[in-house]
Write a structure and sequence with these properties.
Blueprint lengths: L2 E6 L2 H17 L4 E6 L1 H5 L3 E5 L8 H25 L3 E5 L2 H13 L3 E5 L10 H9 L2 E4 L2 H9 L4 E3 L4 H4 L6 H7 L12 E5 L4 H21 L4 E5 L6 H10 L11 E4 L3 H7 L2 E5 L2 H9 L3 E5 L3 H10 L7 H6 L6 E3 L5 H13 L1 H16 L6 H12 L1
Parallel strand pairs: 1-2, 1-4, 2-3, 4-5, 5-6, 6-7, 8-9, 8-11, 9-10, 11-12, 12-13
Helix pairs in contact: 1-17, 3-4, 4-5, 8-11, 9-10, 9-15
């Protein structure tokens, strides 16, 4: 009976790992799955040795605050690898935590499959050669990523991007707005604007106040605009309001009136004329849905300075990194101000042709994500390598 150890460290990895776990169970019903993850993995029959509660962090300063906990978790997982001797260690994203586990497992003679590998093609290219030495298979989610890792000496396979399977909705714009109880309006006079401040508390702390101040400015020009904020998993309404109060944005979510929705992210994306979205997976989800967006990023100053030292980060958004050019406007760090965001958003709202041009570019990026079935192809790689 094969034993597979799976390690994911944050909600997105937990979700993607759960899809692979279900495919592993479907292909091999007597398989044993265990490791570190969250509720999604547990629901997919993975026995959790460690839960990822409080593991999701953003930036180096945040990592430093949880470093002792991370080191304890790593040490525990290394003992599990040594004692349980899994047939395969499946690592999912979460590079800074998982790459040391890959090296350790390889040293113990355990096969390693790395799904959603570090984006070494975007920054810190040296990680590709390191991973090539410690992973039996790199399951790449972009075709150019597989080629990049092969050039670094890795056994890399393009499995497709997991978002293609579920970042979609059959609803039309009108149907999505009706589902969210939004009025069907003419976008030229009363647009629907989606606010997506991120899935981490630190992102909300740094970015949401700027979003809300810009929203108030935009509402002064478009008084009939409608606003929707889809909550990311793990983020509560209370935490949104708390961050607003902490940053003296008052009254929170009332000027303009913003509708918060839960478990309807893709419906909200479809309903929106324009998305103001924090850099991360959500930008690629918006790409799949095809909604124009503005990408935002801000972190603690110490994080930003370290990032700038490590890489010449000229662009942050995944659609732009994949396209190799700026198809979506970005406001990064000090450039992200209420006035700058207001001006950029108003420009897009006033010029529908700019939104249409971006939609066409996003469609080109979407075609690079491959066909559906990434989880199944990854599961097959895991079973083949053992």
């Amino acid at each position: 009976m094969p034993k597979i150890m799976i390690v994911a460290g944050e909600p997105s990895g937990d979700l993607h790992a759960s899809h692979v776990a279900r495919q592993l169970k479907a292909l091999c019903p007597d398989i044993t799955l265990f490791g570190m993850g969250g509720d999604q993995m547990a629901a997919a029959s993975v026995a959790l040795d460690l839960h990822i509660r409080d593991s999701a962090v953003m930036g180096f300063a945040d990592v430093l605050t949880v470093l002792p906990m991370f080191l304890r978790k790593q040490a525990y997982l290394k003992r599990r690898i040594r004692e349980a001797r899994p047939d395969v260690l499946l690592l999912v994203d979460f590079a800074e935590f998982n790459m040391p586990l890959a090296r350790f497992a390889r040293g113990c003679g355990v096969s390693v499959v790395y799904y959603i590998p570090p984006k070494a093609w975007a920054w810190r290219a040296g990680r590709a050669k390191k991973l090539a030495k410690s992973a039996d298979v790199v399951a790449a989610i972009f075709p150019f990523e597989a080629e990049f890792y092969r050039d670094a000496g890795a056994n890399a396979e393009f499995v497709g991007h997991p978002l293609v399977d579920f970042a979609q909705t059959p609803l039309t714009v009108c149907e999505a707005r009706a589902r969210l109880n939004l009025c069907e309006t003419d976008d030229r006079d009363a647009p629907v604007i989606g606010l997506m401040p991120g899935s981490r508390r630190s992102e909300i702390r740094h970015i949401l106040p700027v979003m809300l101040k810009a929203a108030a400015n935009i509402a002064a020009v478009y008084p009939d605009a409608q606003w929707v904020l889809p909550l990311a998993p793990g983020i509560s309404r209370e935490s949104i309001a708390e961050q607003c109060r902490g940053n003296r944005v008052t009254p929170p979510l009332q000027n303009p009136s913003i509708q918060i929705v839960e478990n309807q992210t893709y419906t909200a994306m479809r309903a929106s004329t324009l998305l103001l979205v924090t850099s991360g997976t959500a930008t690629l989800e918006a790409t799949c849905i095809g909604t124009p967006m503005i990408i935002l990023f801000r972190t603690a100053s110490v994080n930003w300075h370290i990032i700038k030292m490590l890489t010449p980060l000229n662009r942050s958004g995944l659609p732009n990194l994949i396209a190799g050019r700026d198809i979506v406007p970005e406001l990064l760090q000090t450039a992200l101000t209420p006035d700058a965001l207001t001006a950029l958003a108003l420009d897009f709202l006033r010029h529908p042709e700019k939104r249409e041009e971006q939609r066409e570019s996003l469609q080109s990026v979407y075609r690079q994500l491959g066909a559906a079935g990434a989880a199944e192809r990854t599961a097959e790689l895991v079973l083949d390598v053992k």
